[in-house]
Amino acid sequence: MVIGIPELSLNNNVWIFQGNPEYYDFFSEFKDESITEGLWTVTRYKEQINKGDIGLIWISGSDAGIYAIIEILNKPEYREDSEKLKKYWNIPSDAANKEWRVQYK
Question: Which of 19, 36, 40, 68 is deepest in the core (most CB within 10 A)?
Answer without folding.
Answer: 40
